[in-house]
Amino acid sequence: MTEGEIVSALAGLLSPEQVVSSAASMRVYDCDAYTVDRATPQAVAIPESTDEVAAIVRWCVDHDVPFVARGAGTGLSGGAIAALGGVVISTKRMTRILEIDAANRRLRAQTGAVNRSLTEAVATHGLYFAPDPSSQSVSTLGGNIGENSGGPHTLKYGVTAQHILGLTMVTPEAEIVQFQAGSPGYDFLGLIVGSEGTLGIVTEAWVKLTPIPSTVRTALAAFADVREATQAVSRIIAAGVMPAALEMIDKGILLALKAAFGLVYHPDAAALLLIECDGDVASVERDMNEALAICANALEISVAESEAERQKMWNARKKGVGAMGRLAPTIVTHDGVIPRSKLPETLDFIYAMAADKGLNVANIFHAGDGNLHPCFYFDDRDPEQVRKVIEAGSEILQYCVALGGSITGEHGVGVEKIDFMKLMFSPESLAAQAAAKRIFNGGSLCNPCKVLPDQKGCVEHQRRWRGAAW
Amino acid sequence: MSISTLTPATRKELVQLVASATSLGIHRSPLKWFGRPSALWREEGDAFVVAALPDRAIISFSPEDQVVVVGGGMRVSELQAGLGAEGYGLPIGPGVPDLALSDAIALDLPHGLESQHGSWRSWVLGMTILLADGNIVTAGSRAVKNVAGYDLHKLFIGARGTLGVLLDVTLRVTPTRAVAPTLWRPTRREGFFPTLPGGGWIQRTLATDFMKAVEKAGDQVVAIDPASSVFWATLPPDQDLPRYRGDAVLRAHSGEKNLRIEDTMMQKFMLRAKAEFDPTDKLNAGEFF
Fold first, then answer.
1. Which residue from B220, B229, B217 is spatially nearest to B112, judged by alpha carbons?
2. Alpha helices for chain B (secondary structure H)
3. In this structure, are residues A393 and A325 in contact, taking their beta carbons and an 8 Å threshold?
4. What sign does the CA torsion over B6, B12, B15, B16 have?
5. A219, A244 in Cβ contact below 8 A?
């Protein structure tokens, strides 16, 4: 099927301005925020409704053309790339909030709606949408559902899956189906959230809204030594304190923040620990006092006295990754997870391994969940550095799995980590996952080459990237 | 009509039992499995019943990670006592009858702290599952956050044992001090548990329909949880209570007394799931379908 045939057919289903195919536009859609792997689609369709999505999928199925859904393209594992070409179905015009049911603390929206817009829509009711990935000012509800996104407040409030009450999906066979959380029968909703767009295209969702907590307290503890900070995290969790967020950044990030934004927190700090507690006044006071007592060996502890001070503390966390652009042309961020008590030794391992390979690494991560984000910064024009960075990533993920952890906590498998699935799961366990996939997607058109290894007809994208680099 | 009770002593025996069963069950009687016997979920008629799973204890508990791995045959009360001694627990409140953990999960049993702490799927981090073909597979991990691959374990929560046998379950636990107060309460003088085995109807409604639904159910209501908008009622299997937009109903008991899935689209995908995981209909035949 030629590009021209696809474009004119889609233009007939939608309207001509809802189909994009110029070479310049296609470059925008050839990757997501995981930029090391690319694949160019033949056309981009921009539907406005569930029915239009179903019409596009029906056409793709009838003509054997692959398709993949795409929100804001902020994914970090290549989940939204058109691995085998075909049609990208963009949700960027599906941004409507369809129903606000404040009495039942729920809201229904199209999945192209930006995460933060949900919270903005219900703020006057004293409610908000709790999942808060760092990308929340641009990333979409659909992307959050596809990746089962986390964020700093996952520690207390849980990941996206816990906040989706129902969804409408166009299946890979172009049927429109609806699933509701907690209804009798198999939990298909639970299977679909986090399936990276491989089981269908979710077009609408009912989301759970959470009351805005009456009290929020935020503190920043500066440690002279990374191990002291990681030990404090493990002790806070072990003490049964339940902070809303427990985030850590290390010296590499602090240097980047200074270079990029002139932000300086403590001149001698090797690590900062951000602690946030929320809820009713009494429990917030109790939890915060206990957490800070555990941090008694810190160089300095500051507690935010105003919203402006709180924002400055969060800037360290939220601007950290962006600031790293100052340090090197390329950054690769990993996403391994370990049981939380293993943080101190795991960070030791990462630093020692990076030093051994002569690599630069900085860490900015969800410490309370044990969700690591080691960021390697390097020059990708040097094949030797690329090789070492890939090797380092592989060693970190093997270390996480050996401790009973995971190869990804929130960024997804996509094409990036497809080879690592065999590290974590036996052939029988992967076969069971493939069986679960076939319940909805027995073909190879709906977002092919993602999540599960050894799919028929797929070029292994990571292998291709390695080939190019070596 | 007879029920033969089987109690495999080891995982290996259980694997052999499941692997050797056929679509006709064992000696032409269906193979059913429960984690442990209970009044709430029982078998009637002809069947070979695995009435107790071989793993009945905590396999590992790491308080510093707030994660526990538990054999599917351990009773929830025993688990709560074990965790409680260390200052932890599952945030389920009082509204859960004393089933085996695998049964509570297989039924996705509502509990008295749902609105405050979520349902079973919020805390099940992973599972070891015996599939109908005799293969043992793992799903999830021991980390509290994990998006590697499909959340296979969620398919088994609320599946009433029709897709596989839950050998062990990895759970996130909650510090006792962080467990919210419950609003769950029995509404009958004789209490909740003595009345429930008479026939269980558990209905979750939207908050705005809850008071109306409870009023309509009248004397049959045995417990309510206004925070989660869930009520429990005793109801003969051939009777229904009024339904409301966006509600959900679970019925206790197995087999014929169970609620049928009426939504045709849901039925279609459930049949596909069953065909993938248990194509010869070996496990807990009679549930759902």
1. B229
2. 11-20, 76-84, 101-106, 114-117, 120-123, 152-156, 207-217, 264-277
3. no
4. negative
5. no
Q: What angle do CA A283, A124, A48 make, to 5 degrees?
A: 120
For all residues of chain A together, what is the average pLDDT?
94
For chain B, state the CA radius of gyration.
Answer: 19
B152 interaction partners in chain A (CB closer than 8 Å): 191, 429, 432-433, 436
What is the residue whose two structure tokens read 């960070």? A347
By CB neighbour count within 10 A (0-12 exposed, 13-18 middle, 19+ buried), where does A260 fall? middle
pLDDT at B281: 87
> Which of B150, B153, B171 should we substitute to test contact with A (largest number of A Cβ atoms within 10 Å)?
B150
pLDDT in tens, A256-314: 999 999 999 999 999 999 999 999 999 999 999 999 999 999 999 999 999 999 999 99
B242 in reach of chain A (CB within 8 A) = no
CB contact at 8 A, B102 and B55: no
Nearest Cα of chain A lies from the Cα of B276 at a distance, in angstroms, of 6
Nearest Cα to Cα of residue A378 among A394, A393, A365, A400: A393
Q: Extract the tokens encoding A203.
A: 């077009």
> Which residues 250-279 in chain B show a CB within 8 A of chain A?
250, 259, 261, 265-266, 269-270, 272-273, 276-277
- Please state, in angstroms and as integers, the Cα–Cα distance from residue B250 to each residue in A182, A331, B202, B253, following that order: 9, 50, 5, 10
Which residues of chain B are within 8 Å of residue A412 when distances are taken between CB atoms? 147
Residues of chain A with C-beta less than 8 angstroms from the C-beta of B246: 166, 180
* Cα dihedral A434/A438/A441/A443 (nearest 10): 90
Structure tokens at A183: 């209804």
Using CB atoms, pick whichever of B143, B249, B266 lies closest to residue A406. B143
Find tokens 């076969």 and name the residue: A431
pTM comes to 0.95
Contact B175 A433 (CB under 8 A): no
Cβ neighbours of residue A249 under 8 Å, at least 6 residues apart? A271, A272, A274, A316, A317, A320, A363, A364, A365
Cβ-nearest to A188 among B88, B208, B269: B269
CA distance A116 to A133: 10
Count how many Cα atoms sit within 13 Å of the Cα of residue B113 in the half-sphere of its side chain: 19
ipTM surpasses cut 0.90: yes
Phi, psi of B186 (to 5 degrees): -70, 150
Partners of residue B157 in chain A, C-beta under 8 Å: 187, 190
Q: Is the pLDDT at A179 greater than 80, yes or no?
A: yes
CB B33 within 8 A of CB B284: yes
CATH numbers and ranges of domains, chain B: 2-50 (no CATH), 58-177 (3.30.465.10), 183-257 (no CATH)
A117: left (phi over 0), alpha (psi -120 to 50) or beta: alpha
Three-class HEC string of B134-194 = CCEEEEECCCCCCCCCCCHHHHHCCCCCCCCEEEEEEEECEEHHHCCCCCCEECCCCCCCC
What does the pLDDT look like over B178-234, one tens digit per residue?
Answer: 999 999 998 887 776 655 655 678 899 999 999 999 999 999 899 999 999 999 988
CB neighbour class for B39 (10 Å; exposed up to 12, middle 13-18, buried from 19): middle
